[in-house]
Design a protein that fits this description.
about 180 residues; mainly alpha; about 0% strand
């Protein structure tokens, strides 16, 4: 392949890479608007987004163009991203949001199925817990019923001993008659 044709292919590939970064940016923008992180987390995720995009671009450069990086080809990537954002983004964004919405519903339904399976797995253990609690409470109630006469007797003894102690404590010594 001649040098000029190769350069046009490289420019076209960089234009496509720029448009791909635009699609990824629209997805990132949707997720950021949906989750609404704070200022600091937004800064961190923005930095992470651009680092990931730079890694993808240079990975594609090394695989598609044998690692040959030129300034002209690098300047075409923002042009491709701008063309995507200006001409295509508003049409693709609705489908992208619909895709994320359906993906979220799919994950939510998968989570519900997993939680139902977990509930089914724990069902016998819950039955054992309730059976143990029922047996324990029944035994405790019978034990309380068994010790009720002893408790009433002890309460009566405590009450009588308290009255006796109060009587002894408040008793005055006999007074001698005046002379």
């Amino acid at each position: 392949m001649s040098g000029v044709a190769r350069e046009f292919i490289a420019l076209f590939l960089n234009l496509i890479i720029g448009m791909g970064i635009g699609v990824i940016f629209d997805g990132y923008r949707f997720l950021r608007n949906y989750t609404r992180p704070g200022w600091f987390l937004t800064q961190v995720t923005d930095l992470l987004f651009w680092v990931v995009c730079a890694g993808l671009v240079f990975g594609l450069y090394f695989s598609l163009m044998e690692g040959e990086v030129r300034l002209a080809t690098l300047l075409i990537i923002p042009v491709g991203m701008a063309l995507y954002l200006k001409l295509v983004s508003h049409r693709v964004r609705r489908q992208l949001y619909q895709f994320f919405f359906l993906l979220g519903r799919f994950f939510r339904s998968c989570l519900r199925v997993l939680l139902f399976c977990w509930w089914l797995f724990l069902l016998p253990f819950r039955f054992l817990k309730y059976a143990f609690v029922f047996v324990f409470q029944t035994m405790l109630g019978l034990l309380r019923l068994f010790f009720l006469p002893l408790r009433l007797l002890l309460r009566r003894l405590r009450h009588k001993s308290w009255e006796f102690w109060r009587l002894i404590r408040n008793r005055r010594p006999p007074q001698t008659p005046p002379a």
